[in-house]
């Protein structure tokens, strides 16, 4: 990507892997979800530690600053455990943190004590943010989570459409550096934005190709471990 070529970035790091590493938990200790991760070819228990996640995030946000246009928005999904870690990485890259959004999933998930019903979304930007296209959006976004989706941490397309419509214009370029099942691309297509997705997992590269792009898939470089759309 050329420098200052991206209008909007949506980032969903594998932050839950750092949580499990820190707690010495492996995917097999989490029924159903662990099985789904294994079937998807994702080995979470050999993934990032919290320190590794921090190092990865530091590099990622420096690169996002480089390719983002001035005033471009960056939205980064995160949980309450790793919000401080990610906030340091974002500000350390020279980006602004403008707000903290809450994605209310409408129902809580498995667990104990106060069971999780939300995820956080850090709203950052390269310099002061461009104005939103609407002034009637609060910082709590209520969208149902994806049940039994194609990816263990799949984000709902309506939520991503809302963000993309609010923070970009028709024809703008949206970047998702960890594309998963391609929800950001689907949301971008729905509202007439261009989209660049990067994904290291061949299963999801093939899924994006077959389900979203068809013959429009223009460049697949699996020998280098990523696909670019």
Task: Please give a quick description of this structure.
This protein has 229 residues and is α/β, with parallel strands linked by helices. It has 7 helices and 9 strands.
CATH architecture: 3-Layer(aba) Sandwich
The main sheet comes to: 9 strands, mixed
Structural class of the secondary elements? Answer: alpha/beta
Question: Are there runs of 5+ residues with pLDDT below 50, and where?
Answer: 27-31, 217-229
Whole-number count of domains: 1
Oligomer: single chain
CATH class designation: Alpha Beta
Beta percentage is: 15-25%
Span between termini: 12 Å
Give the overall pLDDT as a whole number: 82
The number of helical segments is 7
Order of helices and strands: EHHHEHEEEHEHEHEE
Radius of gyration, taken over Cα atoms and rounded to an integer in Å? 17 Å
Write the layout of secondary structure elements.
Layout (H helix, E strand, L loop, with lengths): L5 E7 L2 H8 L10 H7 L10 H18 E11 L4 H10 L3 E9 L13 E8 L14 E3 L14 H11 L5 E4 L6 H8 L3 E6 L2 H12 L6 E2 L4 E3 L1
Parallel strand pairs: 1-2, 1-6, 3-5, 6-7
Antiparallel strand pairs: 2-4, 3-4, 7-9, 8-9
């Amino acid at each position: 990507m050329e420098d200052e070529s991206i209008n909007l970035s949506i980032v969903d790091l594998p932050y839950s892997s750092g949580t499990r590493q820190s707690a010495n938990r492996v995917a097999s200790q989490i029924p159903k979800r662990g099985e789904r991760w294994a079937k998807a070819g994702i080995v979470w228990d050999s993934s990032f530690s919290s320190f590794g996640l921090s190092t990865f995030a530091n590099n990622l946000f420096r690169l996002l600053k480089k390719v983002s246009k001035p005033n471009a928005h960056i939205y980064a999904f995160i949980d309450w455990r790793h919000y401080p870690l990610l906030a340091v990485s974002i500000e350390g890259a020279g980006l602004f943190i403008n707000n903290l959004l809450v994605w209310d999933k409408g129902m809580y998930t498995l667990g104990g004590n106060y069971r999780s019903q939300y995820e956080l979304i850090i709203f950052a930007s390269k310099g002061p943010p461009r104005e939103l296209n609407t002034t009637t959006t609060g910082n709590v976004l209520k969208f149902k989570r994806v049940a039994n989706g194609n990816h263990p941490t799949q984000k709902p397309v309506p939520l991503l459409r809302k963000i993309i419509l609010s923070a970009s214009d028709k024809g703008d370029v949206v970047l998702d550096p960890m594309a998963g099942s391609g929800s950001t691309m689907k949301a971008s297509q729905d509202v007439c934005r261009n989209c660049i997705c990067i994904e290291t997992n061949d299963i999801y590269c093939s899924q994006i190709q077959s389900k979203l792009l068809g013959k429009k898939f223009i460049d697949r470089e699996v020998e280098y471990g990523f696909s670019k759309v």
